[in-house]
């Protein structure tokens, strides 16, 4: 048992991630403490291929870490059995779901699997959590549709509702707003922020929506090849951490407005 701040849900130390078959490995926050606090919304940003999804998948134990330590509530992530982990962490990935023949309601009900008996009987509490998740994401009108009938954006909302129904303390989401229009991107990220703050959940997501993340997130991890930066958006702006994210001959960062400008 390690001593750790009780308000930290996940923290990493000297973490190296990547794929076993690849030579290139990614070290996260070598000299930065990357920690996910209860009640906070944290975004991982960075250019294509830098390793955002790999980090998220490693923290969700979807793939193994290569070196270093990931602590969940003070214990090594690997020390949890799969069922115990499923009641602590929910993961929403970008892969297409295999069970598109299910109705939306059936798919969201699967979120309750860690808590139901072996034949999957739903208790009143399970049903309550499912209805609440559907209401939160505002997809009441979709619940009886088959998943194959949904648009990419609608399916993305359904997958978020399934994670909400799972009702874990930690939620990990890989690009949860990639198929949504601007209004729905903001709506979903505001919802995640509200959930983190009101229910004290720890929410981590990857995104390319850097400007919205700056406005809504409590913390951000900027992944870069040489050195990652982690902290509150205003600290990262003050430290000029966004300035080297993209080649400066094409895109520059305006620290006054917290937005990117295209160089003409
Ligand atoms: N299944 C895989 N096997 C081997 N290498 C992979 C696999 N998936 C991704 N990679 C490699 O791992 C590196 C990090 O990829 P990852 O998907 O984590 O990046 P990302 O920052 O999420 O990118 P994007 O913004 O494009 O989604 C890339 O070099 C990628 O080619």
TrEMBL record:
The domain of life is Bacteria
What's the protein here called?
Answer: ABC transporter ATP-binding protein
Keyword DNA-binding present in the record's keywords: the answer is no
- CDD domains for the chain: ABC_Iron-Siderophores_B12_Hemin (cd03214)
What is an example of a Pfam family matching this protein?
Answer: ABC_tran
The record's SUPFAM superfamilies line, in alphabetical order, gives: P-loop containing nucleoside triphosphate hydrolases
InterPro entries, per the entry: AAA+_ATPase, ABC_transporter-like_ATP-bd, Metal_Ion_Import_ABC, P-loop_NTPase
């Amino acid at each position: 048992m390690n001593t750790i701040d009780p308000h930290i849900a996940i923290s990493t130390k000297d973490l190296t991630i990547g794929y076993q078959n690849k030579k290139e490995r990614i070290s996260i926050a070598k000299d930065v403490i990357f920690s996910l606090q209860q009640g906070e919304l944290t975004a991982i940003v960075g250019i294509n291929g830098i390793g955002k999804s790999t980090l998220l998948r490693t923290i969700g134990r979807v793939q193994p870490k290569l070196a270093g330590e990931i602590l969940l509530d003070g214990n090594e992530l690997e020390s949890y059995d799969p069922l115990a982990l499923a009641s602590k962490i929910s993961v929403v990935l970008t892969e297409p779901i295999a069970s598109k023949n299910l109705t939306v309601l059936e798919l969201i009900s699967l979120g309750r699997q860690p808590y139901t008996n072996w034949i999957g009987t739903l208790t009143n509490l399970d049903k309550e959590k499912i209805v609440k998740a559907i209401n939160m994401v505002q997809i009441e009108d979709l619940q009886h549709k088959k998943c194959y009938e949904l648009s990419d954006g609608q399916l993305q909302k359904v997958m978020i509702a399934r994670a909400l129904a799972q009702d874990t303390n930690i939620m990990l989401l890989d690009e949860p707003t990639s198929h949504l229009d601007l209004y729905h991107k903001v709506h979903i990220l505001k919802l995640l922020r509200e959930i983190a703050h009101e229910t004290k959940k720890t929410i981590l997501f990857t995104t390319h929506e850097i400007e919205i993340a700056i406005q809504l997130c409590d913390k951000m991890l900027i992944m870069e090849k040489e050195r990652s930066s982690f902290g509150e958006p205003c600290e990262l702006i003050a430290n000029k951490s966004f300035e080297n994210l993209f080649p400066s001959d094409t895109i520059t960062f305006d620290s006054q407005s917290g937005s990117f400008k295209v160089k003409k």
